[in-house]
Amino acid sequence: MGVNSTDTNLHSPGEPIPHLANFYVFFYMFVLMLISNMATSILRKYRRSLPLLRINQVLLLNGYLVEIFNTCFTYMCFVTMWCSGVSYLPYWMGVISSSVVYFLMNVSLLISMSISLVRTLLVVKFNMMIQLDPELWAKRILFFILAFLAIVVGVQAFQCYSVGYVSPQESFYTGLEVSDQMNPHIITILGIGSVAFLTTVGSYTFNWYYLKTYHNTRNSILRTIVEAEQLNSVKNMISNKSLTATAFFSLLAVVLVTSMRR
User: Fold this and answer.
1) Closest-CA residue to 32 (of 79, 97, 98)
2) Burial label, 221 (beta-carbon count in 10 A; 0-12, 13-18, 19+)
3) Non-local CB neighbours of 12 within 8 Å, separated by 6+ positions
4) Is 65:243 a contact under the CB 8 Å cutoff?
5) What DSSP character marks residue 14?
């Protein structure tokens, strides 16, 4: 019947273009992957060298953020190297590969937002926060973020696969023609990124105002914490500026790789 012919093409949006190896992209992504892993290794050793008293939720979440960034970048570089130097991926594998990258990007944004909120709580509710187990609560925050985004990104990936949607990134992975519709994963990233940005700016502004207004009424313990936060702003494993720079260069890498596809 006619319905059967339609169903057979449900998950196969056309035929891929002939694969042409591009070793410029291959070596470019290989170098980026090495740099990312070397930088992460240095930051990992720095975290392990810190005394136990310096460990708090912010430091642990910073560590998770570094590891997620490195995992995302390494995975994206590896898949890009394979597609540019070896062969294209099947459509279903291309959808999964791109969804993993979007998932890790969203995880990074939500961890960044969590860091800002935890910093505010350390300033406003220091006595309460100091009594919590840093590792336990940092792991709970990470688990909640992973579970929430696994559902969101998983549903979006299934919807894209069901209609045969091909994003520019999936086009590079599979050799298929790019779809005209807006990528739902990008909409999610923009939404979460906007909330994370507003949260970071709002948290920084509130902390600055709160400490400036109530600085003289706080006890010596809070002043010590404030000074430690100011000192750690230079030594933190990742700052807001480095987060923005990393996100920018990650997107730049995707754009460059896509443009060099042929």
Assistant:
1) 79
2) exposed
3) 91, 164
4) yes
5) S
Whole-number percent of the chain with pLDDT over 70? 74
pLDDT in tens, 165-194: 998 888 888 888 888 888 889 889 999 999
d(CA 108, CA 73): 12
Structure tokens at 170: 């999936």
Residue at 163 is within a domain: yes
Q: Is residue 171 part of a domain?
A: yes
Give the mean pLDDT of 26-43.
88
Q: What is the pLDDT of residues 56-107, one digit of tens each?
A: 788 888 889 989 989 998 999 999 999 888 888 999 999 999 999 999 999 9
**Structural tokens at position 224:** 């010590």
CA atoms within 13 A on the CB side of 84: 24
Closest CA to 112 of 251, 236, 254, 252: 236
Any idea what the CATH number is for the domain that residue 59 is in? Answer: 1.20.1070
Task: Return the pLDDT at 84.
Answer: 87
Q: Which two tokens stand for residue 43?
A: 């930051």
Q: Is residue 10 part of a domain?
A: no
For the chain, counts of helices (H) and of strands (E): 10, 0
How many domains are there within the chain? 1
